[in-house]
Automatic annotation (TrEMBL):
Lineage: Eukaryota, Viridiplantae, Streptophyta, Embryophyta, Tracheophyta
Protein name per UniProt: PSMD12/CSN4-like N-terminal domain-containing protein
GO cellular component, one term: cytoplasm
Stretches assigned to the PSMD12/CSN4-like N-terminal domain: 44-221
Amino acid sequence: MDRDERGEGALGSGVVVWGMVRMGMGEERRLRKAEGGGSLEAQIESLLNVEKQMRLNGDVAGTRKAAIDILQLCFEARAWKTLNDQIVLLSKRRGQLKQAVTAMVQQAMQYIDETPDIETKIELIKTLNSVSAGKIYVEIERARLIKKLARLKEEQGQIAEAADLMQEIAVETFGAMAKTEKLAFILEQVRLCLDRQDYVRAQILSRKISPRVFDADTSKEKKKPKEGESIVEEAPADIPSLLELKRIYYELMIRYVYVSFPFLFFGHLWKHSFFQSPVFVHT
């Protein structure tokens, strides 16, 4: 048997790595388990070597798959600290691909609701937040993470901290975020400011929304974008409809005006045609 038949030669052990990749990282992981593939650390180390080879060769799909497999290993083992460490490690590797970082953040966000306790959940969110900070290609994911963290802070009675967290994000500049998700985020910012009695900040934030936006045609967002334009993502399932957001907006404005100008604009807001509609009357 010559050197080529043995898979040796100029590429050396690299052929073995590429062979594992060709049969699929998932299959390789299953084979390692079937053979008693060692500890979690050993399996992660093996996949880190594969990730490095793929990254240095510019293989986007391979790098993304290896990174996700590492996170999945940690999740299946319920090794939450190791999961956080690997997210940070992978994101900081030299020349790490944007697509791999995006895939890691999106994958790890699915684990948030599976965490065993509130401390572990907050730690995972903070890890993902630090990894996505300053990266435009995961700005929407970071906004969703901040919103989750602010909600947890609010549940713990830390209204001021929740409001400060939400104000870190300016979603009105996110071209790829759905309009309804932007509106819901800004309205949440306004609500938290009102809850902490910061009426000046609440007014500033509310001015980012024009009442006319609630009458716009949302179907325009679904049109195929022109060259150079951002592709607008679908809003998550928990985002209210445009009509519901309109109701929330006017309720928040009534709260603000009632405290700041109780006799000046309250009547004007109440007479708005929306409040005479059956949608508002019956809610």
